[in-house]
Each structure stands twice: as C-alpha cells, then as structure tokens.
Design brief:
mainly alpha, 5 helices, transmembrane, transmembrane helix, membrane
Length: about 130
C-alpha cells in the first residue's frame, strides 16, 4: 500500500543537501571560467542548474555536444539513486521503530547520488 511519508524533515534535508551542492557547484564553476564576457551568465546558469543533477555539466558548456552526451550517460545512474531515495518514502514498512530514521537516511543517499552526478559531469565539462 502506498502512503506518502514526505514531511518537514524531508524538505529540510533536501534544502541542506541542495544548498551544499549549490555552493560547491558555484565554487567549482566560478574558479574555472577565465573572466570572458559570458562568465557571469555561465556561473549563474550552472549554479541554478544544480537541481538538474548530472545535467549541470552540459549546462556549464551551453549544451556542447560531447558534454551533453556525457551528462545524458550519467542521467540514468543519478536517476536511479534519486528513485531509490524516493520509492521507500511511498511504501509502508513492516516495522515502525526506526522506520522514520531509515527513510531519511535513504532520502539523503538518493539526493546525494543525484546531486553528485552534477559534480561528476564537471569532470568532463570543465577539464
């Protein structure tokens, strides 16, 4: 039986993980670009695109074909992490004790896998 288990703890966890990866993305991208006229736009677009997980590498290079291809190859893997973090939130677990903690832990791992896909995509896009 499906039951929605998302709550304030999930939102807070999402915001903290997203903020951490957004700051990390900003630091990586702002250090990489050399001050060309497009630098500010690229830094802003890439930082905002952190929500797109593995697609942030492609965004940082304006969809350049090889970067887009690399990001698309990462997408199923990062998506699997995200899905693995979401699905356990929707099912009723056969035990009550520790279920909420386990749900948050799985949620954290799923989000971390998704957002880490963006950092991995930088290995191709920015090197």
């Amino acid at each position: 039986m499906l039951k929605n288990q998302f709550g304030w703890a999930h939102l807070g966890t999402f915001l903290l993980i997203w903020l951490g990866f957004t700051i990390w993305t900003y630091l990586i991208v702002s250090a990489e670009f050399d001050g060309s006229p497009w630098t500010d736009r690229r830094v802003v677009l890439t930082t905002v695109a952190t929500l797109l997980g593995p697609m942030t590498g492609a965004v940082s290079r304006d969809g350049q074909s090889c970067c887009l291809e690399f990001s698309l190859r990462l997408l199923p893997w990062a998506g699997a992490f995200l899905l693995a973090g979401i699905l356990p939130q929707l099912v009723r677990w056969p035990f009550q004790r520790g279920a909420a903690t386990l749900r948050i832990l799985v949620w954290c791992l799923g989000l971390t896998g998704w957002f880490a896909g963006g950092i991995v995509s930088f290995t191709h896009a920015l090197l």
